Amino acid sequence: MTLAGDLVAIGGLLALGPAALTLSRVRHLSSLIYGGVFLICLLLTGGALRGLLAGAAPEALTLPLGLPWLGAHFRIDALSGFFLAVVNFAAAAASFYALGYGRHEKAQSRILPFFPPFVAAMNLVVLADDAYVFLLSWELMSLASWALVMAHHREGDNARAGYVYILMATLGTFALLLAYGLLGGADGDLSFSGMRGHPPSAAVAGAVLALALIGAGSKAGLTPLHIWLPLAHPAAPSHISALMSGVMTKVAIYGFLRIVFDLLGPAAWWWGVPMMATGAATAVVGVLFALLHNDLKRVLAYSTIENIGVIFIALGLSLAFETNGQGTAAALAMTAALFHMLNHSLFKSLLFFGSGAVLTATDERDMGRLGGLLNAMPLSGLFMLVGAGAISALPPLNGFASEWLIFQAILLSPSLPSWTLKLEIPAVGALLALAAALAGACFVRLFGVSFLGRPRGEAARRAKEVDRFMLGAMGALAALCLVAGVLPGYVIDALSPIVHLLVGARMAPQTDLGWLAIAPVAESRSSYDGMLVFLFIASSALLAAAVIHRLASDATRIAPAWDCGFPDSNPATQYTPESFAQPIRRVFTGFVFRAREKVDMPAPGDPRPAHFGLSIQDLVWDFVYRPVTRGVQAGADRLNRLQFLTIRQYLSLVFGALVLLLLALAIWT
Amino acid sequence: MSMFESLAIQIVEMLIVLLAAPLLTGFVRKVKARLLRKRGPPVLQPYRDLIKLTKKEAVIAESASWLFRVIPYLVFAATWVAAALVPTFGAGLMFSWSADMIAITALLGSARFFLALAGMDVGTSFGGIGSSREMMFATLAEPAMLMIVFTLALIAGSTQLSTVAAFMLSPAVGLRVSLGLAMVGLVIVAIAENARIPVDNPATHLELTMVHEAMVLEYSGRHLAMIELSAQLKLVLYVSMIACIFVPYGLAPPGAGPRELMIGAAAYFTKLAGAGALLALFETSVAKMRVFRAPDFIGVALMLGLLATLLRFVSREM
Hints:
Structural class of chain B: mainly alpha
Strand content of chain A: under 5%
Strand order of the largest sheet of chain A: 1-2
Helix content of chain A: 55-70%
Number of helices of chain B: 11
Largest sheet of chain A: 2 strands, antiparallel
Order of helices and strands of chain A: HHEEHHHHHHHHHHHHHHHHHHHHEHEEHH
Radius of gyration of chain A: 26 Å
Shape of chain A: globular
Structural class of chain A: mainly alpha
Oligomer: heterodimer
Shape of chain B: globular
Distance between the termini of chain B: 36 Å
Number of domains of chain B: 1
Number of strands of chain B: 1
Helix content of chain B: 55-70%
Strand content of chain B: under 5%
Number of strands of chain A: 5
């Protein structure tokens, strides 16, 4: 599909929003809208994939829209094509899922008009070729998703989530606006090709990097700008949460890649240092928070933060290698980052779909009231298990393949000359390993508490399997998690033109190796074969099962649980999410989050009930946001006096301001 | 060497670890009993236990899901595949390239992931306590293992275990500080991962002290047999790994002839016996730790691993 075709399709998506408003009386409107979005997104995915695999040349187009002297520039190259495919595939899956999920939705009229423009805005961000279109689409993406977050604005904390989200989104866009202003230079050339032609000076480039980290990083969820994400993502309906977590964070990373790797010109050696440091901090903080929360969707949102951290570690590594002239190593790290991005968009969408299925079946998000869902929802449970395994980096699923590549890239880094990097990278590697292990614990907890064990509440006991659309979307994503895991070589080769565009080098072709193995540097150094590992595990498990069933006793008895002889029929005696996390909380988070447990145990004979309380304090709120809000509040109180001046005082104020401005102008020139 | 021969060696190695696994456990138990001046069960008792378990009927709790019946086979398969990739008597394993040390760590991680899920499946408090503590240990032991893998990979220039073993056989290794740190770290990780004293006690069924046993409390019959066999395989795996990296003497180099292979096999069984005896001696001489002391113990391994990796980043000589 050509760029013009893509834009027409995106225009169709934009038109579906107002259409949903005007046609609000039509029956089956949600099926119509979601079906339309599904078809358009599938078309866009197909076109983008074909362009990527055929190695299509970049294509540009200028439309006479927007600023009169600028026009609206659009361009598709390998990078845009890749993100176009990721965005639209996930959006297609979400729409297909919503064909079933949307039927249970009560606030249809608050979702349908905003869903297609949200998808269209993400597409436009990826295709934009000047700062104006980029920022406009970025803002449309933020506003549309904000409206979707506020769809259930009367429930719980959602209004607050929306408020925090819109504040942080504004901050992010503002940072990006400044970044583009600096990139545009004194002439104010807002087209990307103009920016590419005039790379800024070293100091300005550093400032742009910081602004891009703030602007794109706040959207992606980098610590300490992540605070809005775990509030906003879970508040939206589940298919929107999947898009926000699985795709919108990737669009943010696209913005970062476009600015830092494309428009900013040659990088300095130290740029990788802050990227890896924030990435590592984000990864560990994200997953530790995920272990402290009980809300199914909030846990998933925190785990998104962790994965964004992992991706930023790989991006920082890539930059460090690139600036030291190690092209193939940079290509390896960049491939790992892009691969992990793709994987995360697959399994995070899958997991959010799963949480939506749980929500549909039980109307419950608190893991502490779920349990035993695997018996009632065998297929949803199986797909959720695949997603949990993939995100915990279990071989042979896809999460492991990309994390393995990142570890391989870290192992190449002792050859970097800089001492800062030499000391930083081992620590980053250790934090990455720690985050990976904690993610495993987090998803054992998530799946074990909500899908295994006995139902902890009436809602969980009555749960039923969800409909075919939801299962179909989850099944497709689960299958892709496995396929990308056992055939990583093909994915790496497909990513190679994008990597070449970003770091100017590429990894050796992997599909030539035979046996479907991958060897990032050299076969003698390291190789991994997802397909063989999968086949080995499958065949030895089947062999063991066959031998056992042939030779051993087949007798099986279903009986009450043993539990050391004292089974308790009350499901409340099971491990809860809090108690599962208690050992980890005690080891890791006592200091970081000031997690405190309070046990109030009455003396024997005292009839008062015992109480257990858990308090978590987020130091980011205390040390970053509280002072800022307090400062804004105090400033506003001071300025408030200006509202009650006399006319003379206002006039002198205006006069003073005018004199000051003229003085400044005189000194400036 | 012909393809057929290397395939034969690979299969023999797979069978050796499988068959030697109960023997090593029986040997450790016997030595431990003798050290306590008891007679102890026969060395072959674990085989008899396994056969007895497979002949019994399996009792499955009412609240168990289908996952409960699948997990023993998955755990066994993941552990066996991991064990098959660790060199025992010869360094040139045919399929060594299909999964490196990072993948072996992750395969063991998968086995643990599923075992922890099995602990939560029936919905009893013991299963939960076991799973939650096991995952807590894992959050320290797994990064520690990865840091040790990093150190070894940076020394040998490869993450393939076979290549690392072949490199350790060569005279280029020498004495290195980082290697020493990695060895102590790996031993600690092995003790923690195999649920041995002082982290966990494999012989106990005393409620509050058990971790691994609590997770598998609801299993019986053939399912329990698979899980016991996986645990025994894991012990052999760690002993083989430590042996082939830090005590590679006698290991047949890649493409060795039959004589070298025989020497390798003899050396391997000597190493197994030596490691088993040392483990028994260590276990009888220390007391089990409180659960919340164990993180300090495993944390030492993590710190050693990090220190060793850092040394390798800073200097090529250390």
